[in-house]
Amino acid sequence: MNLYPVFLDLKDRAVLVVGGGEVAERKAEMLLSAGARLSVGAPDLTPVLTAWRDEGRIRHLDGSFAADWLDDAWLVIAATDDGELNQRIAALGEARRIWVNVVDNAGLSGFQVPAVIDRSPVQIAISSAGIAPMLARRLREQIETLFDHSLGTLAQLLQRHRNAIRQAYPQLGPRRTFYSWLLDSPIANLVRQSRPEAAEAALRQALAEPDAFAPKGKVSLVGAGPGDPGLLTLKALRALNEADVILYDRLVSPDILAMARRDAHRIDVGKHPGQNHRQTQLHIHEQMIEYAQQGLHVVRLKGGDAFIFGRGGEELQHLKAHGVPYCVIPGITAALACAAYSGIPLTHREHAQSVHLITAHTKGSAAEPDWAALSRSSQTLVFYMGVSQLDLIRSRLQDHGHDASTPCALIEQGSMPHQRTLIGTLDTMPVLARQHNIAAPALLIVGDVAQLGEELHWYGQLLDTATVPAAHPPAQA
Fold first, then answer.
1. Which of 11, 205, 320, 465 is the most buried (most CB within 10 A)?
2. From the annotation, which residues make up the binding site for S-adenosyl-L-methionine?
């Protein structure tokens, strides 16, 4: 171990930064956040440093470096572009037993500034001993995804109740067990939900009733996004890495499942053609309850976003009725992803001031959409699950005033490597879709913005509508 890792308390301690440029500004910002009494020495300052000086946040030592700048400093950072000056500062600091860091020069530095993951009061620091700063930053980016921002709030809660925890669990073994449980407990879940009073009450109850902290199951309703694993949210990734059981839908890509915890029990609960979808949904409800009541963390993984035509509300109602704790992690819904990956803005100042998300499938005998309202100008219509309903959608919209030449785009396998985008008009789209064998999953966009797809397309294949293709097998759903 060639460096000794340490965290310094710099609150109200004098710290010096020599240099007034952008690098000095970045160092100063971090030192101010740590509560240092900061002086910045340089002839000129960046606008931000100048503002901080005027606000009294830093003291400006104007002019060229002088040795007496070090007189009361506990810590010094040399951030100038003058190599000889940086070397002089390092030597003076060494002689005075002051810790000096010379930016981008490990050989002259008595300490290294690490890459930091800040969940104050919890902090994680990563150092490459100044040899490969980019490696440290890359590791920080990867580790950053593992820790929710609520971790700091949870730590503050534990700090407030530290004495009570020690009194309730005076022996180290049971106390360690309690802390281990707490990090994945309903208390931590309440903190993540920004319910501090409920979390505080739950912690008090756990301390008053030791038996209350027996493991309890929960369900995380997670949106997996449109398919591209790069669009998975950080919270969704954390949930996948914490899951004991994953109940996933048919449209969740294998690449996303591969990012889950290796020993998680994966169960395909997708609805397939020919099945009784109502019975399948009831079975999903039963499985969520069954596994959660075993004390397990269940991730209900749904394509897109669970609250956009994903029956997420129905599933939460069932969990609520059975007293099972739950949380919701939104996903990027297909309308946003497919449009973005096709270069089609859903809103545009010249073309559309509102967006309607519509499902082509309704429950039982539910009323059809309000076609008259959908036929007003300056709006974009996005139809989910509409490939098999293209003729109906065309006729309904034209019957209610939509022009036959209204631009349309049909996006198949949106955000996936085999994405295909077909651009036509309301009148021609059903025929074009059949000619190009467009198959589900595909999304239909109706409105003037659709024509921008020809100009702004950037991902996947933009189909040529001028020629009829030879037999082209439909993409797999």
1. 465
2. 226, 303-305, 308, 333-334, 385, 414
Q: How many CB atoms lie within 10 A of CB 222?
A: 31
Instruction: For domain 218-332, say whether CATH 3.40.1010.10 is its number.
Output: yes
Indicate the annotated binding residues for NAD(+). 22-23, 43-44
- The rounded mean pLDDT for the chain is 90
> Under the phi-then-psi rule, with left for phi > 0, alpha for psi from -120 to 50, and beta for the rest, what region is 223?
beta
Write down the architecture of domain 335-362+369-462 according to CATH: 2-Layer Sandwich (3.30)
- Burial (CB < 10 A; 0-12, 13-18, 19+), residue 373, is exposed
CB 442 within 8 A of CB 420: no
| Residue 474: predicted pLDDT | 45
Mean pLDDT (whole number) for 45-50: 96
Q: 331-373 pLDDT, tens per residue?
A: 999 999 999 999 999 999 999 999 999 987 655 445 688 999 9
Sign of CA dihedral 146, 152, 154, 158: positive
CA nearest neighbour of 90 among 71, 104, 109: 109
Greater model confidence, 426 or 145: 426
- CATH number of 14-113: 3.40.50.720, 3.20.20.70, 3.40.109.10, 3.40.30.10? 3.40.50.720
What is this structure's pTM? Answer: 0.71
Amino acid (one-letter) located at 321: A
Q: Which residues are catalytic?
A: 249, 271
Residue 391 and residue 416 in contact, taking contact as beta carbons nearer than 8 Å: no
Number of H helices, E strands in the chain: 18, 18
